[in-house]
Amino acid sequence: MDRYIRARYQVNQTPLFRMLSEEQCHEIYLAALDILQRTGAKVYDEESREIFKKAGCWVEGELVRFPAGLTEWAVKTAPSKILLYDRDGNVAMSLQEGYTYFGPGPTNTYHRDPYTGERRRPVLSDTENVGRVCDALPNIDFVEDLGTPTGVTDTLADVYAFSALVRNTRKHIVHWGFDIDQYQDILEIGAAVAGGLEKLQQKPFFSLYSEPSSPLMHSREAIAKAVFAAKNRIPIVYTPCVMLGATAPSTLAGTIALGVAESLVGIVVSQLIREGSPIIMGGVYAIMDMKTTVFSYGSPEFQIMQAGIAEVARHMQIPVFGTAGCTDSHTMDGQAAAEATMSILIAAQSGANLVHDVGYTGVGSCGSLEQLVLGDEVIGMVRRFMRGIPVDDETLALDVVDRVGPGGHFLGEEHTIKHFKSETWFPTLINRMRYNAWRDEAGGSTMGERIKQKLHYILENHKVPALPDDVLQKIDEIIARAEAREAGKKKRK
Length: 493
Hints:
- The chain is of the alpha/beta class.
- It folds into two domains: 32-77 and 211-276, no CATH class; 81-187 and 283-289 and 297-388 and 427-493, Alpha-Beta Barrel (TIM Barrel), CATH 3.20.20.
- Helix content is 48%, strand content 13%.
- The chain is built from 18 helices and 21 strands.
- Strands 9-10-11-13-15 form a five-stranded parallel beta sheet. It has a four-stranded mixed beta sheet with strand order 2-3-1-12.
- α1 (22-39) packs across α10 and α12 crosses α17 (447-461).
- The longest helix has 24 residues, at 469-492.
- The N and C termini lie far apart (76 Å).
């Protein structure tokens, strides 16, 4: 109970951080509306163009211009809170203001071998390992594949990856697909696991992913996926990958406005299909490094724009897909740790909701389980930072201070026993040992060595409860039908 009545008393539950003011967020949002009405976007899917035309958009061939009022209606209709579930049907994440969750990214071209360190093409066993490692790490909240598997039918790599993940993790999965046929395969696998499509819709344990092409182009596959998700009541991430100075203006504000406009096209079509359809806006906002031409994941501008889009999305009251825990470095070194840590902290402080790409290395080309394990440790530290400083009678501890008095100590106090575990974060990898203990007991290990040890322990010991045999059989049957379909397509060609 408070000792007195406090007038005009404000409480900070988390550390304060703002990249943009509310006025600036609104100005960027209005600019995005202006882009869609004045410039428009190319939409290469006939069904989507018809949907837009019936809603009052101006359609000239593949170019669609969107009345600002229609776009604003869609933003207000889209949900500001989306519940995502795990494989067991438990609420895993609540995407809403003030809640941030972390996971790896998808579709890397290369994978860093967890034992040899070799940079090689991913295979299906790597996807299985990603699922199990994510399942074991306490600060990783959802799962993506961290590399497109090779060694399977090329046009079904997405379906095989989803099958591998759903067998090897209980956590929520965010997954991509080549086209609608593969999305249907993934949906059927999800329904088999959930016990039917309606149960899956009520408690979706996976979300779909789609990506327009900057600037302002929405391929048939990209926009059709948003339509598919809305029709089937499955959450979808609709996120552009905009590159400042290349596929977007060379200014931060212009790049964010363009990216918001691209996400808005997906939001509009999803709400026209079904009001309240769960959709998560993007994205991945980076620069093109003018020296190397790479899409940089470690630049300060990357962090600034990630904070900016998170704040604009919060202003719009739509959940946002963030990016963090990644690095431009090609190996586990100081650069990798610094870039990952900075991005994770900024993602949390800016309020991004579903933050992916933990484990990305080599300017996004290579998935690394070592980087993922590092990211898990950093996320734990950042989450403690974000809890801030609770201030009340219990935490001020005036009675305890008075009881101990000058020259005493607090080690034996009940108050200390009660609070030290919750007030203090305990690392699993970061070294706090005294020098002699570190040298003699820990063998003078480096952070990189400890990360490998933890990773190898998980790979060799962590077990995920198996799906029932009848569910596994259904998944195999779905994949077999998909293989026959793809084989038929090849014959027809």
